[in-house]
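Raw record, unedited: Flagellum-specific ATP synthase
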Amino acid sequence: MSATQATGQVVCVSGLCVTIRGIASLLVIGDRVTLCPLGHQDVLAEVVGFSHDGARLMVFGAVDGIGPGTPATLRTVTGRDRSGLAVHEGWLGRVIDPLGRPLDAAGPIVPGPNMQPLRPSPPGPIERARLGPRMDLGVRVLDVFTTCRVGQRLGLFAGSGVGKSSLMSMLARQAKCDVAVIALVGERGREVREFIEDDLGPEGMARSVVVVATSDSPPLMRREAAYAALSVAEYFRDQDKSVLLLMDSVTRFCLALREIGLSSGEPPATKGYPPSVFAELPRLLERAGPGRRDGNGNAGHITALFTVLVEGGDHDEPVADAVRGILDGHVVMDRRIGEEGRYPAVDVLKSLSRTVPGCLSAEEASLTRLARQCLATHENMADMIRLGAYKPGTDPAVDEAVRVYPALNAMLSQGKHETSTIESGFGALQDALSDNAGALAA
């Protein structure tokens, strides 16, 4: 393919947006242009909109040094070669930024022979494979009460500081998958190295690719981190591998989209989010899941867990509500449970997996139903039990809930480096509900 260059110039810089003229007729949404400010390094920018003044761009770096007259160069390729990532097997064990550049000290990134597109369409609904068998996540409370199938997508809803990162590290280390792709979108810079070295560790890192855009990154970089992580996951999925995708968090991805939309002139709608955010969200989330079937009926899968920051405990805020409607289940973490000392701080009664009916035996389903009933009964009567207002023998269901609650609570707790399987989880649940529950709790 032949390549040429076209050059325009900046005519306006307003907030996060840069307007250029001279090459606007050659551009479409999503094209990338190189800005060359005098005395500063070249900076990459992306077309996010158009106006009567020209093309509106947002930069992948700082706008320092950019002003009227700054050259803007477009490298055009016959057939319009769009942006992508040259993903390679050698990316396993690496930490990269959303543009595919290394952030660790392990040397240059090995490029693959082909470009993986950043924003492809999800597989067609009829072309897709079905969900696979149930999958060991390595976390007892999830394996038992929100049992996950290969290719399923779960949402993890929690406030800040409730233990999302620790739960993600347990999944990355212990889940039964071939590859783990971890996207840290808008994460605190201080926590990235701690997560990689302390939480993920060498064992988890060896089979992982970590994509990082910290909170101080421009909105385009934070948005691109989510797209890049999906592209890496899709590369390994297309090799018929089982991929675990962990994204923290979808909320910060939506905040980046909001900044981009408002800066490009889009009107605010639901709680300040422009309409494009809720159009883009399903396009991103639907890319996870089962892949296309090949001629033999085989397919790779992306089993995904997307975290959602629930600020102020409002589970009906726009992003949380939209994500919950798209995904195949949700896991709710509760600060109150963490304050009581039980980790992971998962609220079993508010969490569910929509695929549970297809992956539990009748005996396992009966055990989880009985456990939920006991937990719900104990929660409803907790204040009366705590105050001593409930008299034992008044209600057999409450008596049973009081009897098994200590063992159930112990069963739901798990250390960060403690391993578990689905079978051992259901065995522990059966023991907790048995006549020996009191002895187990002690």
